[in-house]
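note to self — DONT lose this again. spent like an hour looking for the file last time. sequence + predicted structure for the chain T wanted, 277 res
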Amino acid sequence: MGEVMRLRSLLCGVVLIGMAGEACAADMPDFLRGSQTVIDASGPTRWDGFYVGGQAGAVWSGTDFGNGTQSLVAFILRDTTILTEQDPSRWTTLGKYSANTTSFGGFFGWQKQFDQVVVGFEGNYNRTNINAAAMDQIGRSFTTSDGYFNDVVVTASSALHITDYGTIRLKGGWAIDCLMPYMFVGLALGRGDFSRSAHVVTNSFDPSGIKPPTHLDQSQTDNRAGAMAYGFAGGFGLDYAIYQSFFVRAEYEYVQLNAFDLKTNIQTARIGAGFKF
């Protein structure tokens, strides 16, 4: 009987300690009771802190080669009335080219949440294989102020191979618990191989026969490996937190690169996954 009484007393003591503990928790200051919420996995998603992840996407690119050989043609025809008065370097010899491919890479960033507003920055890198090329010829005849009648033919070609590109973004989002739609703007940097060439042929004669005829047949080329191009980026996306520290994303990105008298735009639809720290 004594053992039963001691067991009953022990159980009563445990119950009383538990009730006292609950009462203490209820009486604790808010900042102490709130500390339990921080480690509660069932609590609302927070987007603060550093994060890193990987991604892959489909790429649609377009390159405008219209001015790709302008400086080469201008150099060939330097100090001539043909360039001064008709400027064949500005003739649109080459057109536009579109290409589709894929990309893969990674991202890292930091962000801070204020109520539902989330702001931060992000670095984004993508490996790709964008190839674009154009070749064409244009010819015109005209008379210049020196009395010569001129036949001018310009043949141009240009090729571009972008191997990788990246962006540095300013990012703003709106937290809806585990969902965060966001938008971003930033600077873009691309790397690739570039080549271009121009061939100019001119035949000029004086209809009066006073001046002797002239002839020009000259080419210029420019080849660069691992060249850099600069531009801007913008887009939008959606992050979805599966856990507090793991999320997936889908986004659209527009990048425009300007270099070598070319304009190249890269549009990417991608998916990715990352970890928050």
